[in-house]
Structure formats: C-alpha cells, structure tokens
Amino acid sequence: MSAARESCLARDARDIQRFAAETDVLVVGLGAAGAAATIEARAAGARVMAVERASGGGGTSAMSGGVLYLGGGTPVQKECGFEDSAEDMYKYLIASVGPTPDEAKIALYSEGSLEHFHWVTDCGVPFKAVFYPGYSGEPPNEDGLVYSGNEQVYPFCEIARPAPRGHVPRIPGQAGGLLMQHLLATTEKTGAELHFDTRCTALVQHADGSVAGAVLRSGDREISVRARRGVVLTTGGFINNRDMIERYAPLLLRCKFRVGAEGDDGSGIALGMAVGGAAIHMEQGSVSLPIHPPKEISKGILVNAQGQRFVAEDSYFGRLGEHILYHQQGHAYWVLDDATFVRPDVPREVAGVGNTWAELEAELMLPTGSLESSVALYNRHAANGRDPLFHKRAAYLTPLTRPPFGAFDCTTDNSLFAAFTLGGLSTDADGRVRDASDAAIPGLYAAGRATSGIAAPGYSSGLSLGDGTFFGRRAGRAAASA
Amino acid sequence: MSAARESCLARDARDIQRFAAETDVLVVGLGAAGAAATIEARAAGARVMAVERASGGGGTSAMSGGVLYLGGGTPVQKECGFEDSAEDMYKYLIASVGPTPDEAKIALYSEGSLEHFHWVTDCGVPFKAVFYPGYSGEPPNEDGLVYSGNEQVYPFCEIARPAPRGHVPRIPGQAGGLLMQHLLATTEKTGAELHFDTRCTALVQHADGSVAGAVLRSGDREISVRARRGVVLTTGGFINNRDMIERYAPLLLRCKFRVGAEGDDGSGIALGMAVGGAAIHMEQGSVSLPIHPPKEISKGILVNAQGQRFVAEDSYFGRLGEHILYHQQGHAYWVLDDATFVRPDVPREVAGVGNTWAELEAELMLPTGSLESSVALYNRHAANGRDPLFHKRAAYLTPLTRPPFGAFDCTTDNSLFAAFTLGGLSTDADGRVRDASDAAIPGLYAAGRATSGIAAPGYSSGLSLGDGTFFGRRAGRAAASA
Fold first, then answer.
1. What residues of chain B, 187 to 216, have a C-beta less than 8 Å from chain A?
2. So what's the pLDDT on residue B293?
3. What's the CA dihedral at A332, A336, A341, A346 to 10 degrees?
4. Contact at 8 Å (CB) between B245 and B238?
5. B105, B269, B377: best mutation site toward chain A, by most A Cβ within 10 Å?
6. Which 32-91 residues of chain B touch chain A by CB within 8 A?
7. For the CA atoms of chain B, what is the radius of gyration?
C-alpha cells in the first residue's frame, strides 16, 4: 500500500527522527508574494528561510508587466490629477470580481492600498507620476499609471467613480523585472536565509493536522526543516501543469499563450491540498484577448458565431477574453468599416472582407442576415450616440457604414489568447490556509497565485502582483507572530 | 494548536488503540450508489457494513425522478422500436459532457450499459416498455422510456444517432422511490450489516496516507470501525451546504429550487478531501429551467437581456438552464405569438404582452429594436423551415407573426430553476479516490454525487442515478477485492 503513496506530498512528523535545520518561518517560492512575505516576517523579528526552485528569484512576477493594482489616492494618482478613495476602490472590486467576492479581503486591500503603495516605494520601486491614456495594458514607455480594468466601463462606471489604479514601475516594457529587482534586493537586505535551486517536496504534518515544517530537496540532497512558526507557500499558479489544467480548468487549454514561469505548475497548491487545504475557484482564469492598443479599435463591434454582439467593445481586454472563451465557445470576430479600420498592435488575421455586410457575412460563414441585422441595430443607436445593448461609451460609437467592411479573427482557435490560472488554496485575510470545513490549518500560510486571491472571475491587471504582495506581507507577519 | 483541529475529519490510525468493530468494506451513505456498492461488494464475498445518517435508506435518489441513463440497445429500447448502440451512446456522451470528458469512464459506461440494465431489473426494478414522446423529463404515467437529454438536438443529432436513453421505473411520477425500494430490498437480502441514524465523522488514516477505517457516530456514541479492504463514500452532493456552495459554486445560489435530500451537504466530499482527495468540477451544477411539457412551447423563442436568441429552444431543459444561468447572467424571456401560445405546466409569470413587437419590447424593458430585430431574422429563416443560428428542429420552426405577442419570465430571479451539484471527489473507473497528483489513495473509494462523475457540464437526466449505480457497483467490487 505504501508504494502507491511514495509520491505523497505530506509526511508525518512522527516519522522524522530529527529535523536537519530549523527556522521560524519557511517561505516557499520567491516571486513577488514570497519576497513580500519574507520581508515582513523578518521585519516582525522572525528568523526566515526562503527557498526558490529556480536559480534566482522572480518567478512569473519578474516576467510580468509589473502592474500593481493600487488606489485610494496614491501620490501617483494625485500627481496625475485623479481623485480616488478606498471606498470607490472597494465598490469597484466588489462589483467586478465574481458572484461572491471576498468582502473582508477586499476591504483590507482597499483600505490598506495607500500604505501598501508606500511600502512598495520604500522597497525602492520607482513610479513616474505620468498617466498613460492607452487603456487596459502596460505602457510602452515609463509612464506610471494606467486604467488596467473596467473602471470606465458600464456598469462599473456607474457603481464606483472611475480612477486608474494600475501602477507601473518606471521602465519601458515588462516592468515586472524592475519590480522584482527591488523586492529581491530588499529581501536580501533583511538577512533572511535564501536558498536557490531548492524545492519543497513535502510538508511535514503533526498528528493534529498542523504543519511542522517541510522537506526540501536541492540536487540529490533532501533535508527536513522545522518551521517553528509556520510555512508560507508562495509558489504561483498552475498554468504550466497540463494535467491540473485538464482536470480543473480545461477551457484554458484553448488559449495559445500561457502566462507563467516554468514553476507555475501548481506544486504549492498540491502541497497544501495534501495536508487538507481546500483549493477553490480552480476552474477560473484570467483570459486576455490582447488587441490593445490602439483603443480606436473599440469603434468596431465584436460579434459571435451567430453574428451577435455580446459585450461592450471598450471593455478591458481581460473581460473581452473571458466573454469569448467562457460564454461564446471561443468564437468571435472584430468587425470594422473603412472609416474605423485600424490594425491592432498584436497582429491578427483578417478573417474576411466585403463590400456589403452580406458579403462579409458570407465570408465569415455567419448565418445569412445575422451580421447585417446586428449592424443595422447598432448603427441605428450609434447614430444617436447610444448603445442600449451594452453601453459602450459614446466616444467609441459611430455608425459603421463606409465599405469595405472587414473582420479580424478573434477565435481562440486561430488567434492569440493569453491565460493564467486564478484558482488556488483557500486562505483567510492573514494568509492562513483553510481546509474543506473552512478551518485554518495551523502552521500553514499561502499568498499570491498559489491562492485564489481576490480576483476570480473578473480580473483587472495588477491584481495578481497587488494582492500577492499585499497578502504576502500579511501572511509573513501572521506567520512570524504565530 | 490542536484545538483548531478539533473539527478534523481525518484521524491518525496510530491514535486509535483498538477499533471497536471490523468489516471488510464500509459503505457510507445508502442512496442508489451506496446500495449498488453494498450489493456488489457482498456479491464479491466481502463482509460489508453500510451506514446511513438518515433513519432509512434512499437519500436524494428516492426523491428523484428515478431516470436511469442507459442504452446500447436495452430490451426497453428494442421493444419501443428504437435502435441504439454502445458506440452511439459513447459518441453522444463524449460530445455532450464538457470540454474534457472522462473517456475511460464513458467507454465502460456505454459498453456496460446493457449488462447494467439487466442488473437493475434483476434487483426487481420494473420498466414498462412504452416510449413517452414528451421530451426531456419524467413521464406523468408509467411509461418507461424518454428522451432525457439533447440526443435529438443540434449538433448532437449529427454526431451520434439519436435514441431515447432515459429509463424510468414503472410508476407515475417520482419513480426514484420505486427504484430505491427495490435497490434497498436487494441490499437487505445480501446480509450486509446496515446501520441507520449513523454518520461518519472522520476517516482513519495510516501514516502512509492509506485509509484504515472510519469513525462513526450514532446518537452520543462514537466508535471506530476498521475497514480491512476499503471505505466507499456514497454520501451525495453538496447543494444543501450553503458555505460550500458559496465557496465553490456560487452561481447555483441564484436557483430557487435546490434538488437534494438534507444529507446532500458535502460531508463525504469533505471527508475525502481531509485525507488528501482531490475535488474536481466543483463549480459545476445541473441547472434546469423546468418548462416542460408541452413541448410545443419550443415553437417560441428564448431571448436574453439584449433581446437576442442564444440557444436552440428545443434543447433539453437542463441545457436551457445551464445557458441562462452560466452564460446569460440568469436573464431570459420565453417569447410566443398568439398562434404558438401555450402555458407551461410549471406556472411562470407572464412578463409582458404587446400588440406589436415594439410594445412587447418596451414592456420587457429590452433595448429598442432589439427583440424586433431578432424576431425579424428568426421569422425570415423559419418561413423556410431553417434556423441557421441555432438549428432548432423544423417541427418547431414557424414564423411568429400573429399578435398579441407575449413573454414568460424565465429569469433566475423571478422564476423557478432547479439545481444540484456536479462537482465532487476525483475517482478512477473503479471508484478509487485520487489525490492532487492523480494517485489513488489506498483504501478509499467513492461513487455517486460525492464524485464528479461523468456528467459535468452538459447534464442529461438519468446520468446521476446511471453513473451512481454503475460506478457504485464497480467501487463495491474493487473495494471487496482489494
């Protein structure tokens, strides 16, 4: 029988004669969440060992766009002339992230956002207080503030006063590298014991279910480490584990671009589950249709396999992607006329061109009359600056009347969709991993994409690094003072 | 620390001095899956103890419509004049149940369906070989065969030759009671040791992760039972556990009617998770819009909040419900003209009436021109007996032109949707519960709605009782011969 359990990710503490090493807090994974947990656990006076399976820290955070979702009136927001409040941030997040948002976490995150901004800058991360008007996505320059979600989009714009909350470190392009450079430098300064090329292969559990430490492997060598106050799992998501994706989030297989470092294979989620941790929202993902900028493309309409519109085209590209993959069976075309035609930055195939809507419809193999009918209804209202179906903003409403008409292929099968997982361990606001009965497992903490976080479904850019660092800090502090 | 773990659902075998009782196979829960497991474990020569928390067996199975999804040319199908094959049944199921169907299970289930039919009738369950032509749902009379899924609906009708596979025990109305009466009588005859008013409060686990037995409670008395060959969890789903629904399947909260006995509170899923079992498809549910019969209502059209059609109206009512809840934000109206008007058997509010489409549109507060536009396109094709958008069958295609026009409210907020959960423990084809790494946990089996089964998403009526009894039998046999 024990043969079948050789792969067991949980070891019984009674089977360990003597731990080879001891620490107060053991942090597993050194991306943004792990760095934040390490820094704060050290600040709280704990001895900390942090291990990373790669040869250096950074993980997916370092590969990312570096956007941090922060608000409540940060200095960057103020200098750029935007008013914001913790209340508006809270209302936006509650409205946007799924049918049962984690109100306690979102309240803490919104109220603590300003303080968290200062913590990030105190770590040395620089932000240029210039607003980048290209919506939803990382600026191609050093600009430090963007709209990174659906704040201006109906119905969210009516629920909470819109403000841009995407804070981007000062470097053109993938700013996650710069963010991690500073977070890792700060981590090193804390005097935490850091081990690279070291992976956690099992958690060590007492008979009462509490976590006592972990088994670590580096090369051929395996040692057990006692963590007197707690283990913090900050190992990332599971987009690069095909088996787990098939089992839990199979629709994500249809997205060609999987966003994540090699380490995003769900190892920490599996470790947590092996000691009874509950994994939640495992089917959910951030799914982007990266068709930005230019934002002028929003003057076109997005239609499904029935030639029908299905979402406000000025939505954040993550919302577009979610709608197409989850609700339109991965089938969508972006339709423009000659007056509105622009090429998206991310190249996309032209799926069809026609001098009449009937011609385009036929080229796209849409049902006869379907696109024509959708465009007629759209044009009728757009001429009055209205979109009663989906409430696209007036700036993007203009009748599509000048031939030729054309369509970009936005099907998941033929175009680029970017995805990562949003499911993971269930945690409370202090990062304690919860079991199936919602009780905390003593000694076990988690943060970042190894947890489900606050953002599923209804993702806005910056929520992964934002909640990963914010709740990573809280997990580090909670573990240190356990 | 141990205080926090008092609710712990897993006990360490080393902490148990002496088991109060012993058996070969312990079955937890006596619905259809539990009865099937018990009967087969006994037939395989094992000593079996079966426990049920209620005062009698039956569970949700006994409250259900009693439909068993069976095919491949059963005597009932043949007598009713339908041809069917295991291959067509396999192809239909593969096409209908989700993006990553469990091919191994579906193959066994399709190939073994005929033998399983005989097993069910050998247990004494009677079927009247008369086909009931009212589609998707239980007959109001003794008729024994119905279409209980989307077999005749596009695209499934083109993928596999349609055949009705819903086998209903011979009694008018809720035939689950009759089914369970016979399954329980057969269970009793096997000589298995049956205990009612007895619940399982924890599993007992060896240090190697294998399951040694369970802790049972009856009244104030708690005893530990050693299960030499295995424990089989057949405890049902979790529709009646509000916390679990909020955490895993929050959209189901919008359905007013929750289908399940009191015991469907996820207790067995939580027990399995506590020893490292992985729960999969936890977000999924069977969601029905019970608007049947008369099937003539399919001559109307179903539209969303944008006045657009979104599904073939002649689909199985479970498919309609899934589309409305998961893809249309719970918003739908069933629209008819005076010529097609019929009242559904399940009463529904009339949401609006109008002498023109514009009037009805206004009463329903749909965007101006939206319904008018959808109806115009629908009528244009219906006049030719075609539905290029959703391929509704020609029998239900007739232009909607005779005023007054009316609509039934089919929103989840204002009308009746029936839901139960389809997520649960991950099992292999022999019912072995798998952990996060997909390895079987020795000594632990599960079947029925405590597992995710083969039916998520894309439910057809009869798959719960069908796969519950089929894989319940396999789990019982596998445990008995462990």
1. 206-210
2. 58
3. 0
4. yes
5. B377
6. none
7. 24
Question: Cα distance from A338 to chain B (closest Cα, Å)?
Answer: 25
Tell me if chain B has a CB within 8 Å of the CB of A308.
yes
CA distance A254 to A353: 26
Please spell the DSSP secondary structure of B15-82, one letter per residue: G-SS-SEEEEEEEE--SHHHHHHHHHHHHTT--EEEE-SSSSS-HHHHHS---EE--SS-HHHHHTT-
Tokens of A183: 């977070």
Q: For residue A104, which residues of chain B lie inside 8 Å, CB to CB?
A: none
Q: Do B247 and A280 touch (CB under 8 A)?
A: yes
Percentages of chain B per state (helix, strand, coil), in multiples of 5: 35, 20, 45
Rounded Cα gap, residues B297 and A57, in angstroms: 61
As given in the structure block, the two tokens for residue A53 are 């399976």
Query: What is the per-residue DSSP string for A220-280?
Result: TEEEEEEEEEEEEE-----TT-HHHHHHH-GGGGG-SEE-S-TT-SSHHHHHHHHTTBPEE
User: What sign results for the dihedral spanned by CA atoms B203, B26, B280, B249?
Assistant: negative
Identify the closest residue of chain B to A2 by CA–CA distance.
B208
What is the rounded CA–CA span in Å between residue B411 and residue B408? 9
Q: Which of A7, A8, A208 sits opposite B5 (nearest CB)?
A: A208
Max CA pair span of chain B: 79
Task: Label residues B460-482 b or e (16+ Cβ within 10 Å = b).
Answer: bbbbbbbbbbbbbbbbbbbbbeb
Using CA coordinates, name the residue in chain A closest to B210: A1
Q: What are phi and psi of B291, to 5 degrees?
A: -120, 15
pLDDT in tens, A418-450: 999 999 999 999 999 999 888 999 999 999 999
Could you report the predicted ipTM of this complex, rounded to two decimals? 0.92
CB contact, 8 Å: B10 with chain A?
A: yes
Query: Is residue B373 within 8 angstroms of chain A, CB to CB?
Result: yes
CA B278 vs CA A125, A251, B274, B391, B472: distances in Å: 40, 19, 9, 39, 18
Q: Which residues 268-297 of chain B have a CB within 8 Å of chain A?
A: 269-270, 273-276, 278-284
Q: Say which of B326, B373, B389 has its CB closest to residue A306.
A: B389
Structural contact between residues A460 and A110, judged by C-beta atoms closer than 8 angstroms: no
In terms of Cα–Cα distance, which of A58, A38, A50 is closest to A216?
A50
Cβ of A274 within 8 Å of Cβ of B269? The answer is no
Q: Which domains does chain A have, with CATH numbers?
A: 2-63+177-286+418-480 (3.50.50.60), 68-173 (no CATH), 290-409 (3.90.700.10)
Residue A247 touches chain B, beta carbons under 8 Å: yes
Per-residue pLDDT of chain A (482 residues; tens, 9 = 90+): 233 344 578 888 988 989 999 999 999 999 999 999 999 999 999 999 999 999 999 999 999 999 999 999 999 999 999 999 999 999 999 999 988 899 999 999 999 999 999 999 999 999 999 999 876 678 889 999 999 999 999 999 999 999 999 999 998 878 999 999 999 999 999 999 999 999 999 999 998 889 999 999 999 999 999 999 999 999 999 999 999 999 999 999 999 899 999 899 999 999 999 998 999 999 999 999 876 656 788 999 999 999 999 999 999 989 999 999 999 999 999 999 999 998 777 778 899 999 999 999 999 999 999 999 999 999 999 999 999 999 999 999 999 999 999 999 999 999 889 999 999 999 999 999 999 888 999 999 999 999 998 977 789 999 999 999 999 999 999 999 99
Under 8 Å CB pairs connecting chains A and B tally to: 175
**Residues B98-125: tens digit of each pLDDT:** 888 999 999 999 999 999 999 999 999 9
Chain A residues within 8 A of B426 when measuring between CB atoms: 247
